[in-house]
Amino acid sequence: MNAIEIRNLCKNFGEKQALVGLNMTVPMGSIYGFIGENGSGKSTTEKIICGLIHKTSGEVKIYDREHTDADVRANMGVLIEAPGCFPNLTVWNNLMIQATNLSIKDKANAVRKVLTMVRMEGAAGNKFKNCSLGMKQRIGIAMALLGSSKLLVLDEPINGLDADGMRIMREILTDIAKSGATVLISSHILGELEKIATHYGIIRGGKMICEMTADELESSCPRFVALKTSDMKKAKETLKEKFKRVEEDEQKEYLRVYDAENPEQVVKYLYDNSIIVNEIWVDKIGLEEYYINLMNGKGEA
Ligand SMILES: Nc1ncnc2c1ncn2[C@@H]1O[C@H](COP(=O)(O)OP(=O)(O)OP(=O)(O)O)[C@@H](O)[C@H]1O
Ligand SMILES: [Mg+2]
Prior knowledge:
alpha/beta, about 30% strand, 2 domains, about 300 residues, binds adenosine-5'-triphosphate
């Protein structure tokens, strides 16, 4: 069974067609990275899943049930835009109010538990308005986690976080997935997403253009031998006489040889042509470059 299954989803805002036959499959227990340029339809999809807006047509199933069923909704935690908190109340009281709204029996225990999950035990007494952006995002996740969420839907939860905030968020989301929940997360910060996502969906113009597992991404990201020499121009010309695909990296700091057998082959060939290699390593393209190439119509590589 999948956590989310969407077939042929359409959403119009008046004349504007935001989603045009979107398909999406989010496996249970996955951390699903939802990627796409501004305005491609990520938030719209997530809002429909959570029942914040209505679909125009199509099918949305959560754990094989209609997404509008009340008990399906009760098992879903949502963080879309900023968490709905009272600024002058403490973190603790905000969560207690949410627990009351959800009719949770042992409220204090439930709040303590989610505060621990988001590493905020020490900040329960802080007023919400005095919390940093990173803390507010974590409070939002705590709010979403209340009520034994099996599915968390998070819209750009790592936007604007510093390196430490990102690391904490990474740990929190990985913990949540380990506990058996499914996490759907949209983000533009692909380098971060790549560290935690088990699955990806790439949306463009309201349509899913590609879904894949992290392993599939890994195997479709080409490997290359990277190198630096003191005369990059000459090295490139020389390498091109033997290898089919030799390119400079984006910043033009090093050369990439895609079809070399190993670094030794490249070093030897350049040495035989009187070029000394200063640095050499093996690397592969990451999610960000894969995505940019896909968007530019360059296929996978
Ligand atoms: N309430 C609305 N009324 C009219 N158009 C809307 C509304 N909400 C979204 N849209 C339009 O639908 C399209 C998809 O928007 P959406 O917010 O889902 O994109 P997104 O992928 O989340 O973008 P971003 O990365 O900027 O958050 C956009 O063209 C947007 O302008
Ligand atoms: Mg959005």
